[in-house]
Design a protein that fits this description.
Blueprint (H helix, E strand, L loop, with lengths): L4 H14 L2 E3 L4 E10 L13 E15 L2 E5 L4 E4 L5 E18 L6 H10 L6 E2 L6 H12 L5 H21 L3 H30 L8 H7 L4 H12 L3 H19 L4 H7 L5 H12 L3 H10 L1
Antiparallel strand pairs: 1-2, 2-6, 3-4, 3-5, 3-6, 5-7
Length: 299
């Protein structure tokens, strides 16, 4: 959808009236200004004490920072960081939108403050073509939404504004750091799925006396060594210890909710004989199975 240029220019006027202090669960942003201009005046080298994001809608120019030139053209996007000298020059019919803001550190979470502190040092501040970034769609929707009236509309404008500014921390983060973060997230999600599936398998096969780490690892298509490491890291205990506790947990439920004998329950929970069951139960529960039943029945 093609958006009229007037939306970009006049929409920023509306945003300056509405979206100047933005609150979310983990962050508070102070917006200094929203802007949209068709005729850019070439300023001298200068710096800000805040972040400024610019997105080029049309035309050409050169962005210079630290003695390095970066070509600007339609869909180029760049970030100026606090106290970094820069300027835009050699502009030809340059039309771009921009927003200047800072994080309110004492009202934001430590994780958010750290994220924007890292952004101040990022090397990934210039994007030649940002047309496919979801942030641009948010920005355009925000500008259009700013022309509508009503309390609910204003709330949505504030929410979109906050989402837009928060997204910049991810867009302009260093690629290596971003890749490492994604890798760690995938590993964490993968480990969580392994643990979830292994717990279900153990629960459903407690009656098998020969239930083993190798068996569960094989079910999960993992090596025994890799599965053992994940299990210990995620749950803080060995596979053997966890299975023993689960057998006793299930046994305690059966002892107090059924009329089955201790021998039957020991077999159903994977113990090879009632004597071994009694020993393990007494060790973990600090009470013998028979006394456990009697104590429960007296309640």
């Amino acid at each position: 959808m093609t958006i009229p240029q007037s939306i970009y220019v006049d929409g920023t006027v509306n945003l300056n009236l509405i979206a100047h202090t933005l609150h979310s669960k983990d962050a508070v942003f102070r917006v200094h200004y929203w802007g949209g201009t068709r005729d850019h005046v070439h300023p001298p080298m200068h710096q800000h004490s805040f972040f400024e994001i610019c997105y080029v809608l049309d035309g050409h120019a050169i962005y210079t920072e630290s003695g390095v030139d970066y070509p600007l053209q339609k869909n180029s996007m760049f970030l100026t960081r606090p106290y970094i000298k820069h300027n835009i020059h050699t502009a030809s019919s340059l039309f771009f939108i921009f927003v200047a803001f800072e994080i309110v550190a004492n009202a934001s979470s430590s994780a958010t403050v750290e994220m924007f502190s890292r952004l101040e040092k990022t090397h990934n501040f210039y994007i030649p073509d940002g047309s496919n970034l979801p942030a641009i769609r948010i920005w355009e929707a925000l500008l259009q939404q700013s022309f509508q009236e009503g309390a609910l509309v204003q709330e949505s404008v504030l929410a979109l504004s906050c989402a837009l500014l928060a997204s910049f921390a991810h867009i302009f983060s260093d690629n290596i750091e971003q890749q490492d973060s994604k890798k760690r997230k995938r590993e964490r999600l993968g480990a969580g799925m392994v643990i979830s599936q292994s717990k279900l398998y153990i629960r459903d096969n407690l009656g098998n006396p020969s239930l083993s780490l190798v068996e569960v690892a094989h079910f999960l298509h993992l090596s025994g060594r890799h599965f053992s490491r994940i299990f210990k890291e995620e749950l803080g205990q060995s596979f053997t210890s966890y299975v023993r506790k689960e057998r006793i947990r299930q046994a305690s439920i059966l002892l107090t909710s059924t009329k089955k004998s201790i021998k039957q329950i020991s077999e159903e929970t994977g113990f090879e004989n009632v004597h071994y069951f009694t020993r393990v139960f007494s060790e973990i529960m600090e009470i013998a199975p028979r006394r456990f039943i009697d104590k429960f029945n007296k309640k």
